[in-house]
């Protein structure tokens, strides 16, 4: 995977993030490859509070090179961080994460086919389902990253849009995710099984 080096980016404002989200979404649509808005902004579309950290999109691993070629041609700079499951797209000093692995598995067209079309900041784009957003958040928990507070706020906000039986099924082999769902049940955020 060929990437540019040396992107120097400072913290971005919410307005810069929104602009970056729109610019990258339009470029991804023009690339012709399937993609979806993911992460905090996907949760925001479903009713969660607006995120403050970053913008995430997912693309299938098989489409990464095509997408990166298109983004470079469109004038975006690309950075390869140490993680091997994403690249970062620089637009006017704001980085957008382009992930090809989510919830511990390669992004594939099956996941992308479940994305739903939404108008986001006046741009029509596919957005991961609320269920897939929650599964990805819960699968990110491990011994080093198990702060339940941010995902609790998200899950409370979008709980009615989530298929909790599917979440339980897809996270059954993840102890931290199971503990989080148990906490949600005990707090009456989601129905007990």
Keywords, please?
Beta Polymerase, domain 2, 193 residues, 5-stranded mixed sheet, 8 helices, alpha+beta
Widest beta sheet: strand line-up = 1-2-5-4-3
Order of helices and strands: HEHEHEEEEEHEEHHHH
Question: Whole-number average pLDDT?
Answer: 93
Percent of sequence in beta strands: 15-25%
Radius of gyration (CA) equals 16 Å
Q: Give the overall shape.
A: globular
What is the number of helices?
Answer: 8
Main sheet specs: 5 strands, mixed
CATH class annotation of the largest domain: Alpha Beta
- Any guess at the CATH architecture of the largest domain? 2-Layer Sandwich
Provide the helix percentage.
40-55%
Distance between the termini: 44 Å
């Amino acid at each position: 995977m060929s990437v540019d080096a040396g992107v120097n980016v400072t913290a971005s404002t919410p307005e810069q993030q929104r602009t970056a989200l729109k610019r990258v979404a339009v470029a991804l649509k023009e690339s012709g490859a399937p993609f979806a808005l993911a992460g905090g902004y996907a949760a925001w579309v479903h009713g969660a509070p607006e995120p403050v950290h970053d913008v995430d999109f997912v693309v299938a691993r098989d489409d990464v090179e095509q997408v990166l070629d298109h983004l470079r041609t469109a004038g975006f700079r690309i950075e390869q961080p140490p993680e091997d499951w994403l690249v970062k797209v620089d637009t006017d000093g704001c980085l957008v994460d382009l992930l090809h692995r989510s919830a511990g598995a390669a992004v594939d067209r099956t996941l992308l086919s479940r994305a739903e079309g939404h108008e986001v900041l006046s741009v029509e784009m596919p957005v991961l389902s609320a269920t897939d957003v929650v599964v990805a958040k819960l699968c990110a928990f491990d011994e080093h990253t198990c702060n339940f507070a941010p995902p609790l706020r998200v899950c409370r906000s979008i709980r009615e849009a989530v298929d909790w039986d599917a979440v339980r099924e897809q996270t059954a082999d993840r102890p931290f995710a199971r503990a989080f769902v148990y906490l949600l049940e005990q707090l009456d955020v989601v129905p007990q099984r």
